[in-house]
Write a structure and sequence with these properties.
CATH topology of the largest domain: Outer Surface Protein A, domain 3
Structural class: mainly beta
Strand content: over 45%
CATH class of the largest domain: Alpha Beta
Largest sheet: 14 strands, antiparallel
Shape: flat
Helix content: 10-25%
Distance between the termini: 19 Å
């Protein structure tokens, strides 16, 4: 049994017989609850701080803290105070505030992995209010939008020189695309699988970031593998070219992606 799988199993059952004030919940890649540690990509640790305060912490499979927030009850959706999320480099990726009713209330700020601001705005009782700003990965303003009672009143987009522009097509919001289509991408991956000279059965999940330039970065494999095999797979993915980045509010943004290598 792989090391990380053992850790997840231990965490899942650790509260039994030790403490009824701490609960571990496992989640798969779609953030759905699972009882199978081998399918878990995240785990949530719930700790009772006092009679009216619970601390929620979400971890990635490699035990890296992904986010934390507070609640008055065991219901994770009834949040209070704030939720703080962290990127893959352990820096803060977003901070969102809540009121005592569990509604989004106050400033929301988010950052790219390079430390530049991604977007910012304000909620009033879970409704967008006032000026919201979006920024390019390199730091320049990309869009300004004004909301009233959660309704969009005006919206303007800018290029990196600060000139107002009109967006064409679906570049306001667009998923990443691979040149030649996803079938071409899968064909490239099958080429990797066929060249690996290792006796493997099952699946290996490769997580990565599709950057604003289309390069694959932050390539990670949480499964326990020989170092040489892990590095061979990572090197292969680094060399893949052909991705077009995702777009949001007219600007390219980095986005997390994953792919399962299947070995029969």
């Amino acid at each position: 049994m792989i090391k990380q799988l053992l850790i997840l199993i231990i965490l899942f059952f650790s509260y039994i017989g030790y403490s009824q004030e701490e609960i571990i919940t496992l989640y798969n890649s779609k953030r759905k609850v699972t009882k199978n540690p081998s399918k878990a990509k995240f785990y949530q640790k719930l700790t009772k701080e006092n009679d009216s305060l619970w601390l929620f912490r979400m971890y990635r499979r490699n035990n890296q803290l992904a986010s934390y927030w507070y609640s008055k009850t065991k219901d994770s959706k009834k949040r209070i105070d704030k939720k703080v999320s962290f990127g893959l480099n352990d820096s803060i990726s977003s901070i969102l505030f809540y009121n005592d009713k569990g509604e989004k209330h106050g400033k929301l700020s988010a950052w790219f992995d390079n430390g530049n601001k991604s977007y910012e705005g304000r909620y009033v009782n879970s409704k967008k209010e006032g000026l919201w700003r979006n920024y390019f990965y390199s730091g320049e303003i990309a869009a300004r939008a004004f909301f009233k009672n959660d309704s969009l009143i005006t919206e303007k987009f800018y290029d990196k020189n600060g000139n107002e522009r009109v967006l064409k097509g679906n570049y306001c919001r667009k998923k990443p695309e691979f040149t030649g289509g996803i079938k071409t991408y899968k064909k490239i991956i099958r080429r990797l699988v066929s060249k690996l000279k290792w006796k493997i059965k099952g699946t290996i999940t490769v997580d990565y970031t599709i950057s604003v330039t289309g390069d694959l970065t932050n390539i990670r494999i949480y499964d326990t593998l020989p170092d040489n095999l892990r590095q061979e797979i990572i090197t292969f993915f680094k060399q893949i070219k052909g991705w077009k980045p995702a777009f949001n509010t007219g600007r390219p943004i980095p986005i997390q992606h994953s792919f399962k290598l299947i070995f029969e």
